[in-house]
Design goal:
Elements lengths: L3 H10 L6 H10 L8 H11 L5 H13 L4 E3 L7 E3 L6 E5 L5 E4 L10 H4 L10 E4 L2 H5 L3
Parallel strand pairs: 3-5
Antiparallel strand pairs: 1-2, 3-4
This protein binds zinc ion (2 copies).
Length: 141
């Protein structure tokens, strides 16, 4: 994702509305590696800006995702998660608390056998490692 200042310019260039609420959403995402849901972004922004609506947060996230500035991930944690890191990477997902962390797989990228690809052209590979984060693994339930 570009910086909030650059995003303001990009939104204006595309004729999209730029409001202090939207800029606060950009700021909440900048450098955020928590893969927040829309509700989590809403909770962050509301601290500074109590008048913001969840609808505005959703609209801004949808606009950013449509522009390719953030990724929208469906990881089975109950809500879409948003990722300002658009570089190639994979995810660890805790099935107990919903924690999502970036991981790199590097040279070990999984590749299906050519015969199974049947001419399919892969342009992106996403690997999800599911399990429990350390605190959840130590929990007794
Ligand atoms: Zn966990
Ligand atoms: Zn990520």
């Amino acid at each position: 994702m570009r910086t909030p200042t650059e995003l303001v310019g990009e939104f204006r260039a595309r004729g999209l509305k730029v409001t202090p609420q939207r800029v606060a959403v950009f700021a909440a995402l900048e450098g955020n590696d928590q893969h927040p849901s829309a509700e989590a972004v809403f909770a962050i922004v509301r601290e500074e800006m109590p008048t913001i609506s969840l609808r505005t947060v959703y609209q801004t996230l949808n606009d950013l995702a449509a522009m390719g500035e953030i990724g929208q991930l469906e990881l089975g944690t109950g809500a879409a998660r948003f990722d300002p890191n658009t570089g190639p990477h994979h995810h660890l997902v805790c099935d107990r608390c919903g924690l999502v962390r970036d991981v790199s797989v590097g040279a070990g990228e999984p590749t299906p056998p050519r015969s199974e690809l049947a001419g399919f052209r892969v342009h992106q590979t996403e690997v999800v490692f599911r399990g429990r984060c350390a605190p959840c693994a130590a929990a007794t339930d």
